[in-house]
Amino acid sequence: MSFFSDLRAERLIAEIRGINDPTHPNAQKAFQKLARLGAGAIPKILDALAVADKKESASYMEILSQLIDNKSFPYLAQGLADGNSRTISAIGWALTRSTNYTPGLLIELLGRADIPKAAVLEIIGAQKDRYPVRDLLQHAYGQEANEKAALFRIIGELADESTIPELISRIEGKDSAARIHIINILGRFDRPEVSAALQNQLRDPNKMIRQAALAALSRISGPVNVGPVCQMLRDPDLEVANHAIDVVVRAKDPDTMKHLIDVLKDENDYARRAAVEVLNHLGTARDIKHLLQAIKDDDWWVRTRAADALGKIGGPRVVDAVIELIRDEDEDVRRAAIEILNQTKDERAVNFLIEATKDKDWWVSERAVDALAEIGSKKAVPALLELLDTNNTRSLPTIARALGKLGDTRVIEPLVRLLDRPEKEIKVETINALARLADDKRADTVRNYIQAAGAEIADQTIQHAAIRAIEDIDSRYSGTALAAQAQAARMAEPARTLLIERSDVDAVIKKAEDAAAATMKLDISTLKSGDIIEGRYKYIEKIGKGAFGTVVLVEDTVVDERLILKFLNPNVSQDEEMMKRFVHELRYSRKITHKNVIRIYDFLYMRGNYAISMEYFPSHTLGAEIVNDKPLPLPVALQYGIDIATGMTIAHQAGIVHRDLKPANILINDERLLKIVDFGVAAAHKEGDTQLTKTGYVIGSPKYMAPEQILGKKVDERADIYSLGVILYEMVTGQPPYSRGDHMSVMYQHVQGKAKSPLDVNPQLPPEVSALVTKAMAVDKLKRFQSMEELRTALEKLL
């Protein structure tokens, strides 16, 4: 720019500012003269834009758009580099409006570190019709992630069928991010060559490529080769497998079922589940039968895995199909159908299962009885009572066990007659069933029957079953147990409890909160010894604080007894969904009355705080006994394991899964009496809340969590069995199986399941103890002990 042009531009801009009205005729004449100065005026215009008002800026921007060409472009490029946000915005507007410059000049600016890339990309987007897709692709590869994504968005907007060959030719490149963008663009085109190219990407080692390819295929309505896609249901990455489900379901290929057979037999639980997800969308009774027939000649474990997968997540289509197959003429199909219904626990199957108890195949008949027990419908009781008169000795233990689970006290007298049978297994199952059925009115009568049965025969198994059953009845209905229940009733506050038997939990909680709203909130941190809470509880001392709450020791002045109050932390109590589940779980938890379980008295709202009141048990934690990486004496470890399994058996019978068993939740006093604490706390969380919730704490304890809980899957009592297995491991070796790394690392190790055997860590350990612990800790829950009762019995044999 010449000196004179520079001077003239400055004078004209000063004149425009002096007029202070861009629309004034004199100002308009000045703008026209400024434009006639040509490209040399651009630097001064850019300087003026930095301080110009809105109207003045509009006129300058109009001049810039007139002056733009290849020769003046460098001035604008430098303005993008040096200008403030207003200047950059003005330049962008001008470049967007003009087409008097080579479009490649803009792309070259993406290579300059001093140029704001977002502004350049916005201009390119506005001018996209001037760019061939090939040119944009060539320049996209060298960009950083954000710029690359922006360019591929523009490419996606430009792409049409004529660009498909160019895109496919680049799908196998080395740049993974670029490949993913290209795959996403191709997913818009319903063409055979696109489908074929995408399916080729399913073999790529990069899971992100596989995931993108499947997502793209799921958007294509044309034919898909479902064979390779079905194999993706076995992909180790769950997101990839989920996308594969979508593709297979969308394809609706008539040959899908034959490709699912191998997947349904896979060792990986999630692969089998993925196959069942597909079945639940596409399967019919004919399809299910075909699958069951296809696997009937396989190893029993393969069949069991497949049946478990079909049963656990079956859904309406699978259940309806399987119910139909209970009557199939093929014995193997009927057996498989019964196994599946044992897992589904679906009420719709009750009548069909009752019919199946009369099946000529003893296996179908027995497993139908088991399935009815799992469903828990008392509609099955009359049919099961009829079966008690059967001459099939093999089936009587199963029938007795089922009647015990169904909980109908009317069957006590018919069951008692089985105690006269000579068969040991029948006696043991009958004793166990009677113990479960005993209530406060019949406890003494049932106890007498069981005592007599145990005394008649000098068989240790029967005697041991009788002793255990009587202990169970006494723990619930002895004078001491009844006194403890009476005390618990006195310690509860019926007028203010949140555990009343109503379904409207929201209303209960709101009523408590409204009643306390007018009072000053209780600050737990300011409590001093002797302070009275709510006119009833005398504060003694703080015992501890954790993720869920603050634990304090108080004296209940009404009943003159010490108890524990666990005040929930705000991050817990402010979660409405959690509070609903909390109240629901605690209603059941406080019904557990057993010497190996801490008694929960009540759940209260105290001046802005929620608190659980529970039994005070002077003790230390199990963790305090496992120190310095030294194992506990084996008899002590086994007895602790038996006591934990005993308490958990009672809890599971009440329908409560703990979900957070760990040494810190196991209390032991000086007489080695063991009690489990914190029922209803971890249980209050919904399925899937596995790692970090929105309230910011870890659900469960990573060192002791079951793999299915870590993965956010539905848990049952076998999750507690796994946790007890980990506790046993620590007791007999002195160290937990997985402890290295952060929480996420430990969780991953549980899912992998590659812990050293207890025997490798402690060579002095009996092999049978090591085997028991390993079985309890199996990653696949089907390979664990299937009940706490089974685990307790196994432990007792080792003591």
List the topology elements.
Blueprint: H1 3-19, H2 25-36, H3 42-49, H4 54-67, H5 73-82, H6 85-97, H7 104-109, H8 117-126, H9 133-140, H10 145-158, H11 164-169, H12 176-186, H13 192-200, H14 207-217, H15 226-231, H16 238-251, H17 256-264, H18 269-282, H19 285-295, H20 300-312, H21 315-325, H22 331-344, H23 350-356, H24 362-375, H25 381-387, H26 396-406, H27 412-416, H28 424-437, H29 443-456, H30 460-477, H31 479-491, H32 505-516, E1 532-533, E2 537-545, E3 549-556, E4 561-568, H33 570-573, H34 576-589, E5 600-606, E6 609-615, E7 620-621, H35 634-653, E8 666-668, E9 674-676, H36 707-710, H37 717-733, H38 743-752, H39 758-761, H40 767-776, H41 788-798
Antiparallel strand pairs: 1-2, 2-3, 3-4, 4-6, 5-6, 7-8, 8-9
Helix pairs in contact: 1-2, 2-4, 3-4, 4-6, 5-6, 6-8, 8-10, 9-10, 10-12, 12-14, 14-16, 16-18, 17-18, 17-19, 18-20, 18-21, 19-21, 20-22, 21-22, 22-24, 23-24, 24-26, 25-26, 26-28, 28-29, 28-30, 29-30, 30-31, 35-37, 35-41, 37-40, 40-41
Binding site for ATP: 566
Domain Protein kinase: 537-799
Pfam families: HEAT_2, HEAT_PBS, Pkinase
